[in-house]
Amino acid sequence: MLRSKVVADPAGLALARTFAGAAYWREEYRSLFTEDVRLDLPYAPPGMWQNMTHNETIYYFRWMSATVSDWKYDADIKAFATDVDGVYWVFRTGEGKVKWAKKEGIFRSKMAAEIHITDGKISYIKDHLDMTAYYAAIGIELPHFQYDAPDPASIEPRPAAPVVQHTDESLARQIEATLNFFINPSYWDPEVNCVLADDFIHELVFAPKDMPRVYVGTEYDSINAWLGAHMGDGEVYDCKFYNTDNPNVYIAEFNCYFDVNWGGAVEGGHYSNREISYIELNDAGLCTRLDEYFATTSKFNSIGVSIPSFPQLY
Fold first, then answer.
1. E strands of 205-314, at which residues?
2. Which pLDDT score, from 0 to 100, does residue 180 have?
3. CB neighbours of 257 closer than 8 A, spacing ≥ 6?
4. Rounded Cα–Cα distance for residues 254 and 235 (Å)
5. Is residue 303 within 8 Å of residue 269, measured between CB atoms?
6. Per DSSP, what are the bridge partners of residue 202?
């Protein structure tokens, strides 16, 4: 059984959970925040604010309050304290009716938010949402992104993960190897490490519409083969791991930069992104789930296609 060294502040975790289940832009939730609260939306589409001042945060709250109704969250809300004082992460899926650019629709997105709590109130929010969901809500089609991975049925299944009776020391080494696996620039090589549980699930949370978002079994090996064929030199850098109050859950933030020739583009493309990884381990230190959050815009940038500006505030 894994053990966490993170001691959660009950009041802070309760506030994080309240935020996670709230349409937080509404006036009724203003008491959750400090007077100078600031919001960033790093994955917002072109045309929307991504890094906001306090005043822009308030304008954004007003815009959302005026244009979004019947907002609700799915039941599987997750909130975590971390080993960084005052920093919490929350994961949830929300949906509501919207009226943007004089068009009505439904907006639905998974979300990953880093929140900072100062003196019992939220002082900073960095919320990551699905860029493609904004366009889908008002009927705007985005370009295609070609995904030409091999047929998963043609790939030999991986051997079962070995059963290991760990000592505390060997378990710590296994956890370190598993976490490092997902920031290794060659992590799509299935021979890098034995770090995956037999029931491993991989989700590319904000993948373009032409790519699957969930991969199990040989589907994961198929996308690895695709990555190996289309990604060249590059690096993963500025990586930060968060331990959480759940000993089986880790969260990572990292930047990456790679040469690519994917998505139907010719040689000479480059891919850069700031990614979030939600990592679940089993009690043997093997990964059972990896959810990757990234800015879908960067996929389109890497193949040299433009996407329309989103008409925020219109």
1. 214-216, 231-243, 249-260, 269-281, 287-293
2. 86
3. 234, 235, 237, 270, 271, 272
4. 10
5. yes
6. 215, 290
Task: Give the span between the Cα atoms of 75 and 96, in whole angstroms.
Answer: 15
Q: 132 CB contacts (<8 Å, ≥6 apart)? A: 142, 206, 208, 209, 296
Per DSSP, the three-state class of 309 is coil
Domain range summary for the chain, segments of one domain joined by +: 10-137, 152-302
Question: What's the pLDDT at 264?
Answer: 77
The phi and psi torsions of 239 (rounded to 5 degrees) equal -85, 140
Fold classification of 10-137 is Nuclear Transport Factor 2; Chain: A, (3.10.450)
Beta bridge partners of 240: 253
CATH of 152-302, one of 3.40.50.620, 3.10.450.50, 3.40.50.300, 3.40.190.10: 3.10.450.50
Compute the Cα dihedral for 35, 253, 204, 208 and give only its sign. Answer: positive
Q: Is 54 within 8 Å of 102 (Cβ atoms)? A: no
With residue 114 as reference, give the H or E element that holds it.
Answer: strand 103-118
Query: 117, 126, 163: which is closest to 251 by C-alpha?
Result: 126
| Rounded Cα distance, 96 and 137, in Å | 10
**Domain 10-137 matches domain 152-302 at the CATH topology level:** yes
User: For 126-153, how does the pLDDT look when each residue is reduced to its tens digit (9 = 90+)?
Assistant: 999 999 999 999 999 999 999 999 999 9
Pair 123, 117: CB distance under 8 Å: yes
Q: What is the pTM of this model?
A: 0.94
Tell whether the model's pLDDT for residue 101 goes beyond 90.
yes
Residue 306 sits at the vertex; the CA angle it makes with 261 and 149, to the nearest 5 degrees, is 35
